[in-house]
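Is this the right way to post structure tokens for a design question? Let me know if I should format differently. Anyway, here goes:
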């Protein structure tokens, strides 16, 4: 699922949808997944998480150490801070907490979507997520 689809759903349900992103690096499938997650969080420390996230996704076959540093520079980040932050215990801990939370929640792959706390096992395109969101909204009693 592209971020475009998530953005579309956010536009359609501006007051009813909260999108929460958590890392779940599957290193056994993608050996550089953890390094990419760390890079995204380090960019986020400079308020540029999504730009780095998208850049990493677009270049997922080029995630070696020199590549990550190059992407930070291309995005206009402070390269020294980026390098320090992605090796920090704080950011390491954030990735570990996301991974633990995902495992406890039954996440087995990415992407995984939950709609009102229930894992959505259907497809991840607009045509399958939209009805799940609408159905979930219809089940929630309105509070005045």
């Amino acid at each position: 699922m592209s971020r475009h689809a998530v953005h579309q759903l956010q536009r359609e349900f501006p007051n009813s949808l909260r999108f929460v992103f958590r890392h779940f690096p599957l290193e056994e499938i993608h050996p550089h997944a953890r390094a990419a997650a760390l890079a995204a969080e380090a960019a986020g420390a400079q308020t540029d998480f999504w730009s780095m996230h998208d850049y990493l996704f677009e270049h997922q076959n080029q995630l070696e150490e020199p590549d990550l540093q190059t992407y930070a520079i291309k995005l206009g980040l402070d390269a020294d801070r980026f390098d320090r932050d992605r090796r920090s215990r704080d950011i390491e801990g954030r990735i570990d907490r996301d991974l633990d939370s995902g495992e406890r929640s039954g996440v087995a792959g990415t992407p995984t979507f939950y709609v009102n706390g229930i894992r959505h096992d259907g497809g991840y395109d607009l045509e399958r997520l939209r009805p799940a969101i609408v159905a979930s909204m219809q089940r929630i009693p309105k509070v005045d």
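Format looks fine. Someone answered above. Worth noting: DSSP finds seven helices and two strands in the chain. Residues 1-24+108-144 form one domain.
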